[in-house]
Design goal:
It is a single chain. The strands form 7 sheets. This protein has a 22-stranded antiparallel β-barrel. The protein has one domain: Maltoporin, Chain A (Beta Barrel). By secondary structure, the chain is mostly beta strands. Helix content is 5%, strand content 55%. It has 5 helices and 37 strands. Keywords: Cell outer membrane, Ion transport, Iron, Iron transport, Membrane, Receptor, Signal, TonB box, Transmembrane, Transmembrane beta strand, Transport. It comes from Caballeronia arationis. Its main location: membrane. This is TonB-dependent siderophore receptor. It is a multi-pass membrane protein.
Length: 729
């Protein structure tokens, strides 16, 4: 494709952003989840585990979740949901030592990433597409990746990944998956916890989690979590700092009514820790040798990253009678960013020695505000031998955003003997400037949806449909132009699950999705239609009786149509046509839980084939490279903890993560080699204390995690070691 000046600006800006409770749990469920049957038929108590309390009755114990609201928006056992669901619990986050959501997803099938970055958790792929991100069932602001919404892992009760198209319940989005983060909220329990962390790169963190009832009757309860962190960036001279706080209050006057009001605030200070590097010196030979993984491509005096985000909302539920329940989830969110960045753009063509990196400089100041309200009416009733759970919903969201950007050609940098020429804001008014862009956008989205979960004996049929309308207005403040776009789409899902013997539950489903394409005009002046996704999936779950263990296997195929591809009738490459199609298909395997009383595992494997099966350019029959897409991935985390005897409370964990080679550059002309890294942990629990040391990439292997092009390759994360202590009373 030949890019015009505006498309080049967009690509440069996009590139800059890459581096980027149980208190009321049913007694029988808790007893089943915390006991296992021995060969002699006696009951052996499983190890004491921390119980999730994100959603009342969610059945989460330790590493295993048994119920989910995300899959159906109703409280449903996972083995009845006809799509693959992976749940990462707070116990798994703590056990594996994850310090970001990006790291928390390392041991689920098919998660691939360019590496952790202070600016983003979400530059990742699931089933070949970037997932849509939700917090507590409502979507976060749709932003540039360099300014994505983040949640500190200490604030998280669990992370649910619902795979495949999800528009039938959640509206617009790509067909790969949604990631729904469940927050730790007030639940009426007494909670007293403080903790600290120390690690390499000068990491220092303090945190606390305090909660209790407020009144004598326990109708009012509160919870406050907070994190403060200081440390150094993985590359460069700048610090990485964070402050985050998340208070919540719950009012529950009776068993039929509850209202939880929650707020959050997060502020990050730092700089980019990932660097855009040329293929020559990373995955290709360079006569000067390999580029150091510690090279900093920013500017010590100019580069900075300052982000603030806050939210406030509520979750309301009232049960009118044994049949009808009404729920309303509402939230207002705001994010602002001030980011000065300098990044690489491949080898400087004026230097034949291949030592010099061409660089761009940018100043990004986006702001996002988002309001969401989701109203749900649920009815549970029977018609003869058939049980129904009917869900009717109306959802509305509105997002306002402003995006001011200045871009310019920056000074080059010798990668093998770096001497940094100071960058200042004066560069944006000089001869190497691309000028300023300033856009204002408003998105209004309305959705009506209906779903029926029909259960007859051991069969569960889930069927649903949704109609969405989106209105978008985008103003070019500098150019004085305005673009409006209206889209609508119908999406659906139908799935059949059989609840068989021995804990086996096979299922098959068909689901669809849509995603509007914003800010693009076709050659005839028309606006593009939304992309459409469709998936067929078959799977098998196994929950062995008496075991706190869940295994999953799934096979799927996704086709996304209406994808933009260059207009063959336009020699300038300015316009596109919607004749592209992406196909993703694969196999996923996973296992999580306790194998024995002392031994637990988290295992995953994926084989995937993602390809542009229709296109008008060099990407035809090639793998997409905007996000890393290896053909195979495998991971295994195992933990052994003694729960009796002289070593009671002592445990060891070890993990291995493998990623096969993958394609780089749009025409797949680059090959990024495979890699394997190892993680480890040791922990000790005694009375009110927990001590742990977690290490990632323990052998400090240097590897390239992906290449978008010959000028944008990325090193994976180096070794990190974190010691932590937590005290409960």
């Amino acid at each position: 494709m030949v890019w015009g000046r505006g498309m080049r600006r967009t690509a440069i800006a996009a590139a800059a952003g890459v581096t980027f409770c149980a208190a009321a749990m049913d007694h029988a469920l808790a007893q089943e989840a915390t006991q296992t049957t021995t060969q002699e038929g006696t009951q052996a108590t499983l190890p004491a585990v921390r119980v999730s309390a994100a959603a009342e009755g969610d059945g989460t114990v330790g590493l295993v979740a048994r119920r989910s609201r995300t899959g159906t928006k109703t409280d449903t056992p996972i083995d009845e949901i006809p799509q693959t669901i992976n749940v990462v619990t707070s116990a798994q986050i703590e056990e594996t030592g994850a310090t970001s959501i990006n790291e928390a997803l390392r041991y689920i099938p098919g998660f691939s990433s360019y590496g952790a970055d202070v600016r983003s958790d979400w530059y990742s792929a699931l089933r070949g597409f970037t997932p849509t991100v939700f917090v507590d069932g409502l979507q976060v602001p749709n932003t540039l990746n360099l300014s994505s919404w983040r949640v500190d892992p200490y604030m998280i009760d669990s992370i649910t990944i619902l795979r495949g198209p999800t528009s039938v319940l959640y509206g617009q989005g790509d067909p790969g998956a949604i990631v729904d983060v469940q927050s730790k909220l007030a639940n009426g329990e007494r909670i007293r916890e403080v903790g600290m962390q120390l690690g390499n790169y000068a990491r220092k963190q303090l945190q606390f989690d305090i909660g209790d009832t407020i009144d004598r009757d326990g109708t009012l309860s509160y919870r406050v979590l907070a994190v403060g962190r200081d440390g150094n960036s993985l590359t460069g001279p700048h610090a990485e700092q964070r402050f985050s706080i998340a208070p919540s209050v719950r009012w529950q006057p009776n068993a039929s009514t509850s209202l939880t009001v929650a707020a959050s605030y997060l502020q990050d200070w730092g700089d980019a820790s990932n660097n855009f590097l040329p293929a020559e010196g990373t995955v290709l030979p360079n006569p000067n040798g390999r580029i150091s993984e510690n090279l900093y491509t920013g500017d010590p005096t100019y580069s900075y990253y300052r982000k603030k985000e806050w939210s406030v909302g509520y979750q309301f539920e009232h049960k009118f009678d044994p049949i009808w329940t009404f729920r309303q989830n509402t939230r207002w969110m705001h994010l602002s960013l001030d980011n000065g960045a300098v990044w690489g753009d491949g080898l400087d063509p004026s230097d034949p020695t291949e030592q010099t990196l061409a660089r761009y400089a940018g100043l990004f100041q986006p702001n996002y505000s988002r309001f969401d309200i989701d109203n749900q009416a649920q009815a549970r009733f029977g018609t003869g031998p058939v049980e129904h759970t009917v869900l009717l919903g109306f959802e509305y969201n509105r997002q306002n955003s402003t995006d001011s950007e200045w871009l310019a050609q920056g000074p080059s940098l010798n990668m093998y003997n770096p001497l940094y020429t100071p960058v200042s804001t004066a560069i944006f008014s000089g001869p190497d400037s691309f000028g300023q862009t300033n856009t204002r956008s408003t998105l209004d989205s309305f959705g009506l949806y209906a779903q029926d979960q029909i259960k007859w004996q051991r069969w569960m049929l889930t069927i649903g449909g949704r109609e969405d309308w989106t209105d978008t207005k985008q103003d070019d403040v500098i150019g004085g132009t305005q673009q409006k776009q209206n889209d609508s789409a119908f999406t659906g899902r139908v799935g059949l699950t059989y609840l068989g013997d021995y804990g086996l539950s096979p299922y098959i489903s068909y689901s669809t999705s849509f995603n509007p394409i914003i800010g693009v005009k076709m050659a005839d002046g028309s606006l593009p239609a939304p992309t459409k996704g469709r998936q067929i999936e078959a799977g098998l779950r196994w929950q062995p009786a008496g075991k706190n263990l869940m295994l999953n296997a799934a096979i799927y195929q996704i086709n996304q149509t209406n994808v933009l591809t260059p207009d063959p009738a336009d020699p300038t490459g300015t316009f596109s046509v919607q004749t592209g199609e992406v196909r993703s298909r694969g196999i996923e395997l996973s296992a999580v839980g306790n194998v024995t009383r002392n031994f637990s595992v988290i295992a995953a494997y994926v084989y995937q084939d993602v390809k542009n099966i229709r296109a008008n350019d060099v990407t035809l029959d090639k793998w997409p490279v905007s996000i890393p897409l290896p053909r195979q991935m495998a991971s295994l985390w195992a933990d052994w903890t003694w729960h009796a005897g002289p070593l009671e409370g002592l445990g060891f964990g070890a993990g291995i993560r493998y990623q096969s080679g993958l394609a780089g550059a749009a025409d797949n002309s680059l090959y990024v080699p495979s890699y394997t890294v190892y993680d480890a942990a040791v922990h000790y629990d005694m009375r009110h204390w927990r001590f742990a040391v977690n290490a990632s990439n323990i052998f400090d292997r240097t590897f390239v995690s992906g290449c978008q092009s010959s000028s944008a390759c990325f090193y994976g994360n180096p070794r990190t070691v974190i010691a932590s202590a937590r005290y409960n009373w």
